[in-house]
Design a protein that fits this description.
With about 150 residues, the chain is an alpha+beta fold. About 20% of the residues lie in helices and about 35% in strands. The two termini are about 25 Å apart.
């Protein structure tokens, strides 16, 4: 299985020894950190870094996440984490992500988020953020067999 068709924004990282489980594989919980770091980089590259979101009283709160592990990552593997938008509504959106080792797909993730303000009240996704994310939208059938199911 390969991860051809690069998507959205990408971030590279090298697997470090303290991220491994007793079997020498990247611990499953570590993938959540990899994927989150890539989302933060993606937002920043779009001009909507966490500092700007906070200044604009916008919070992107995770409401659901599903991860599919396909092949283990090992010590010193060079990984690329790709991030794109699958779909968006007025308040909620779903992003898709995948981890690759070269062209080999090793993990995928769907993540839903809601947009709220500092009072935890739902708010619309700001128009400029929605437009920026729209540039990284993938087709509805993008790698659908490789992604875990997760309804928005």
């Amino acid at each position: 299985m390969t991860g051809a068709d690069p998507i959205g924004a990408s971030m590279s990282l090298r697997v470090r020894f303290y991220e491994l489980d007793p079997y020498g594989h990247v611990n499953h919980a570590t993938y959540l950190q990899y994927f989150e770091a890539a989302r933060v980089v993606w937002l920043d590259e779009m001009g909507h870094g966490l500092d700007r979101l906070l200044a604009d009283d916008v919070q992107l709160v995770v409401t659901a996440v599903a991860t599919k592990f396909i092949s283990p990552a090992l010590l010193n593997d060079q990984l690329t984490i790709e991030t794109a938008m699958a779909e968006a509504g007025r308040v909620r959106a779903q992003w898709v992500q995948r981890a690759l080792r070269g062209d080999d797909l090793i993990a995928t993730q769907r993540i839903n988020f809601a947009t709220v303000n500092s009072a935890n009240r739902p708010i619309r996704v700001p128009a400029d953020l929605a437009a920026a994310m729209q540039q990284f939208q993938v087709a509805a059938d993008w790698h659908v067999r490789d992604l875990p199911d997760l309804a928005l």
